[in-house]
Recover the amino acids of this structure.
């Protein structure tokens, strides 16, 4: 084998190792997800008060709602983004929250909350689908917490511009918030909010305000937390070792070529 060919093969092997390791050290992971699916609405793990994740670990609960939640269809009115909608639609359910505050009071105090540890992860992104009834609050606010207790508004209000309709693939990209990285106490909420211009709880149907919309519902599905795994120290050391090895091999081939 010629010196030139040997040099090329060594460089190719080492480059492949480096690229492979870099790829494995930094990629998006599904940390936790709630799809609220089950054989029936009464067999979904965790029940309506605290459904458990379908993937990963975490907890979910209701926040300051006066009525009990239910599990309702995830296929009605066009359906959520859940892929089971196509494969086994009869098992596709969503978390139906109700009992929100009356118009003009309790802004950003009622909704649903999810707690997910991001230990070992950074660049956190949350996705979800929402279905609003005709008498549900038109606006919702996404909030996050770094201690599981105190919540901070993030981003603009989400607006449901129609009743009995799904608004899928909503996103809160928290990758710029370093405090939620590698945080075992990370939590987030979706809560009802006042109309930003009229300061009232306008409903999704666009029919104006009502004295109370306790009967209005906000349905959630495919609540997902994605993040990037933080490389383990041993992986970083090995990556550095491969880099040094590549440099040494290249130098050796240069010396051989001079002879």
């Amino acid at each position: 084998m010629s010196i030139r060919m040997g040099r090329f093969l060594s460089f190719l092997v080492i480059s492949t190792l480096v690229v492979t390791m870099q790829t494995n050290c930094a990629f998006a992971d599904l940390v936790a997800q709630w799809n609220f699916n089950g054989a029936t609405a009464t067999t979904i793990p965790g029940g309506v008060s605290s459904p458990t994740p379908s993937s990963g670990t975490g907890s979910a609960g209701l926040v300051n709602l006066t009525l009990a939640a239910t599990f309702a269809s995830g296929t009605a009115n066009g359906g959520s983004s859940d892929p089971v909608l196509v494969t086994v639609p009869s098992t596709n359910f969503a978390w139906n929250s109700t009992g929100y505050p009356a118009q003009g009071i309790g802004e950003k105090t009622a909704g649903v909350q999810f707690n997910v540890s991001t230990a070992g992860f950074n660049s956190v992104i949350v996705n979800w689908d929402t279905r609003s009834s005709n008498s549900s609050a038109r606006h919702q606010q996404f909030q996050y917490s770094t201690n599981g207790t105190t919540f901070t508004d993030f981003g603009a209000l989400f607006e449901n511009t129609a009743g009995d309709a799904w608004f899928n693939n909503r996103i809160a990209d928290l990758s710029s918030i370093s405090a939620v990285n590698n945080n075992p106490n990370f939590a987030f909420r979706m809560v009802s909010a006042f109309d930003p211009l009229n300061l009232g709880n306008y409903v999704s149907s666009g029919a104006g305000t009502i004295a109370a919309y306790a009967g209005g519902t906000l349905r959630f599905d495919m609540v997902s937390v994605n993040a990037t795994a933080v490389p383990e120290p041993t992986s970083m050391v090995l990556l550095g070792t491969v880099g040094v090895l590549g440099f040494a091999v290249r130098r050796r081939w240069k010396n051989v070529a001079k002879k």
